[in-house]
Each structure stands twice: as structure tokens, then as C-alpha cells.
Amino acid sequence: MGFSYVVAVAVLLSSSLIFFGMVYSDFVHTETQLKSAQDNFNTHNYDYLNSKVSITGYNYSLSGTNYSVTLNVTNTGSVALNLNGTNLLVNGTLVNFTYANQYLFPLGNDSIQFTVGSGNYDIEIIFNTGYEQYGKVTV
To answer: What is the pTM of this model?
Structure first.
């Protein structure tokens, strides 16, 4: 009777140690993932809050049957923007565009060029940080 009691206690203690070891390991892994996600959120939020771009003007020229529109933009924020990860919507439709430099650094100027027909257009530039800039173009 005494020996079986000792064996039962040893089995229960060892299984408890294994169980709590697995729980602790999962807890540490989860906390590491949460910390990483919070750091990524803070970085993205900082970039978003410190992004600011102004459209300083535009010009257009006839290119075949359509017009080539060039938007002049200035980064007035404190974060460099990657134009490679930027989208341009013209009247709510995603359009292809070209740019002079891949990065728009703080206080830097650049131009975004796209092609449209004649008319009035609402444009929206969505930068890689999530910042959006609206404008109107009349061709």
C-alpha cells in the first residue's frame, strides 16, 4: 500500500510538471506574438500619423486621344513614403501611374503621371502608410 501511494504521487507530480511546462511554453509563445503585433501596430500607427502630402498643382498635355496628367506632390510629413506601394484612384477606379522617384522623402517633391480622357475627375492617392490625399483634376 505504501509503495503504490509513492508511485501514484510520483506519476501525478511528473505529469503535473509536464503539463505546466507545456502551458508555460505556450504562454511565452503567445506573449511574444502579442508583443510583436503591438510593435508592428505602433510602427504603422506612427507612420500613418506622421504622413502628410499636399498636391501642389497639376498640368496636362494631349497624348494621342487622351490626356497625360502630371500631379505635383510634396511630402510635408516626417515619414518617407514609398510610391511603389501607392495606389491611385480616379473617380473610384484604380489606375496605373508612373512616378519619377520611388521614395518621397520629407520635404521632397515628386510627380505622379497618369492618363485620362477629358472631363472632371476626383482623384485619391493612397500611400503605403495608409494616408490618403484627395484632389480634383479638370482636363
So the answer is: 0.77
Contact 63, 76 (CB under 8 A): no
pLDDT higher at 68 or 17: 68
Are the C-beta atoms of 109 and 56 separated by less than 8 Å?
Answer: yes
Read off the pLDDT of residues 19-29 as tens digits, 9 standing for 90 and up.
888 888 889 99
Residues sharing a CB contact under 8 Å with residue 136, sequence separation 6 or more, in sequence order: 120, 121, 122, 123
Whole-angstrom distance, CA of residue 58 vs CA of residue 121: 12
Which amino acid, one-letter code, is at 52? K
Q: Confidence band (pLDDT; 50, 70, 90) for 1?
A: low
